[in-house]
Amino acid sequence: xxxxxxxxxxxxxxxxxxxxxxxxxxxxxxxxxxxxxxxxxxxxxxxxxxxxxxxxxxxxxxxxxxxxxxxxxxxxxxxxxxxxxxxxxxxxxxxxxxxxxxxxxxxxxxxxxxxxxxxxxxxxxxxxxxxxxxxxxxxxxxxxxxxxxxxxxxxxxxxxxxxxxxxxxxxxxxxxxxxxxxxxxxxxxxxxxxxxxxxxxxxxxxxxxxxxxxxxxxxxxxxxxxxxxxxxxxxxxxxxxxxxxxxxxxxxxxxxxxxxxxxxxxxxxxxxxxxxxxxxxxxxxxxxxxxxxxxxxxxxxxxxxxxxxxxxxxxxxxxxxxxxxxxxxxxxxxxxxxxxxxxxxxxxxxxxxxxxxxxxxxxxxxxxxxxxx
Length: 373
Ligand code: CO8
Description:
Number of helices: 11
GO molecular function: 3-oxoacyl-[acyl-carrier-protein] synthase activity
InterPro entries: ACP_syn_III_C, ACP_syn_III_N, Thiolase-like
Largest sheet: 9 strands, mixed
Helix content: 25-40%
Keywords: Acyltransferase, Transferase
Distance between the termini: 18 Å
Protein name: Beta-ketoacyl-ACP synthase III
Bound molecules: octanoyl-coenzyme A
């Protein structure tokens, strides 16, 4: 059977970032103004006052210290609390296309390839800035790729589900080289007025080049030993934004048209599912947790990752075994585990095993077991 190899990865990080202190300062000004505006209703007990946020809580509850964003100014304006990302004309590349091209070029360069070597582009991420034409086809055009492209969305698991689609294309012979790109602009769909979640997400874009094994040098890249996907319906992470919103005015502008979650429930329910998925996947490949040199886990919450890696290994994982990038990037949805893989793999030796594992809304879990060539 034709095998698939990850031959290169790329990362685009928006230069601007916001630390917890700055984010909280803007949020708390908004809270103070809101409470002043509604002081009479609050005094009459007709309305609950909004509570301030705190940088110490954010770091302790999540492990996040800062996040990169496309636009700082709009998010930090207490009257706006939303990024300002101007619309572009139809003749200009979209923001997601620009991010994708930057990440894809790095992945191609790392693999020693050019766009002429690629036949397919999958843009896999949580939010597309428009339904059509597909962002992936725009990226295909921008890079000059002769082949096919499509968009897909499985929330935080988009990149690993995209990886499985790419591996399938390689194995069944419909493509020789596939780019899987995850341009996540999470700040565009985060409710910066919601104390429970205003700190969770950041923006970034990753790209992965997957190729037929026989095209890749003997010591280059990572063999994909297997992929395993799992979904189970849950209402605990929702985003009800969609094309039918305009058909019922009652819902327009409501908080459920942005990211909304029951974070505690997600933490409790998803962590064991992820550990079981990784363990089941390893044993199906006749491997065990002791064989793993590294776990590149989805980057949503530090405590969650420590719990998952402890369940998988039967002991606490070292930082080397389960690297953390969410302190700097926050949750970048599907890009998170790929950023960890991109930044933390150069020290592995030939034959070392690792697992890339994403998890999130749906619920959805994607596990990809790889071996350094
Ligand atoms: N500042 C100060 N205090 C706060 C704050 C705040 N900002 N927020 C809450 N508190 C208080 C609460 O009021 C509560 O107080 P009390 O105990 O008095 O009631 C206390 O802190 C504890 O609150 P929580 O129980 O909510 O806090 P947790 O310790 O559970 O931490 C987390 C909250 C960090 C959200 C945590 O539950 C978590 O990370 N859970 C996992 C979440 C997760 O993995 N989600 C995946 C989502 S990603 C995904 O799949 C969607 C992708 C789509 C991307 C879309 C882009 C926008």
